[in-house]
Write a structure and sequence with these properties.
mainly beta; 2 domains; two-stranded antiparallel sheet; about 10% helix
């Protein structure tokens, strides 16, 4: 059969389908080429959302919870209690966690990775990281009664405890672990009502911020009295960065080691702490500021029995 005859006799519907498929393929290739040829820089938030192949992501949508324990007691195991059962004890009754709420505006990610960089002080080490870059979280922890060795000392509580972002990095070594914990933390009030029946019997630290720093820190000069009022206006405070315990990139991770007779902790610290008001008795003392905390070496030794 003549080839021209074959062409003339083809099904028009088949031709139409083939032409349509060809155009779709052309559009797909062109769009792909255009997208791949245009590079765009990601924001820090977008970079934080990238999860490695070795990790998982989790989203929490408005989880609410409350919890109550009628009695919680901490015992000193060395104390003799045959004559006094309250010796060496601290008790909270009841202990209540109220108005608990967690919601993620961006996913929480959990990744495992190995640092491969000859210039990095942690080169070759493997770590696991839990990241919560944008967390809408709130809770209050209250103890209606606090007893020390059987003696009531009042009420205690943490009101509206919030951690809008935090990062945990953890790795193993020998007899312990290396870690870094970065957090942006706020509490509306930390209180001890040591004489609830009296109006003046209250110690409270209000509006606590624990973070990397504040925007006005560079403007403050201890030698220039004109700048001394800068940290005293809480409405002007702008938090920057995160409070850090440990510094993996600097080769100074926080460490926890467990030995035969003791627990040892090394805790390098970097950050700032401010409070909007200190209330003691019937007196308000105003804002507090501890800026530019730099603890290069802090060793805690907890001996065993």
């Amino acid at each position: 059969m003549d080839p021209m005859t074959q062409i003339d006799n083809r099904n028009p519907l088949t031709e139409k389908i083939q032409r349509t498929c060809a155009w779709l393929l052309f559009i797909l290739v062109a769009a792909t080429a255009t997208a791949s040829g245009r590079m765009e820089a990601l924001t820090e938030n977008q970079m934080d959302d990238v999860i490695a192949q070795s990790g998982i992501g989790m989203v929490i949508d408005g989880y609410q919870f409350d919890w109550t324990a009628d009695w919680v007691t901490i015992y000193d195991t060395d104390s003799e209690r045959s004559a006094n059962p309250d010796a060496g004890t601290i008790s909270f009754c009841p202990l209540r966690l109220i108005n608990g709420r967690i919601e993620t505006d961006r996913s929480i990610s959990w990744d495992a990775y190995t640092i491969v960089d000859a210039s990095h002080p942690m080169d070759g080490r493997t770590f696991t990281t839990l990241l919560a870059p944008d967390l809408d979280q709130d809770l209050s922890l209250l103890a209606d009664n606090v007893y020390v060795c059987g003696q009531r000392i009042g009420e205690a509580g943490v009101v509206n405890f919030q951690t809008p972002e935090w990062y945990w990095t953890l790795g193993a070594h020998g007899s312990g672990v290396d870690f870094q914990y970065d957090v942006n933390l706020r509490m509306d009030r930390l209180l001890l009502a040591y004489n609830p029946s009296g109006a003046a019997g209250l110690f409270a630290v209000e509006g606590i911020s624990i973070t990397g720093g504040f925007a006005d820190m560079n403007d403050f000069d201890i030698h220039d009295s004109a700048t001394w009022d800068i940290p005293t206006d809480p409405s002007q405070w702008q938090r920057i960065g995160r409070f850090s315990i440990g510094d993996l990139d600097g080769g100074r991770p926080a460490r926890l080691d467990v030995g035969a007779s003791a627990i040892e902790m090394e805790l390098p610290i970097n950050g700032s702490i401010r409070a909007e008001n200190l209330h003691f008795g019937a007196q308000d003392f105003g804002p507090l500021a501890i800026d530019n905390i730099r603890v290069h070496h802090l060793t805690l030794l907890i001996p065993g029995n």
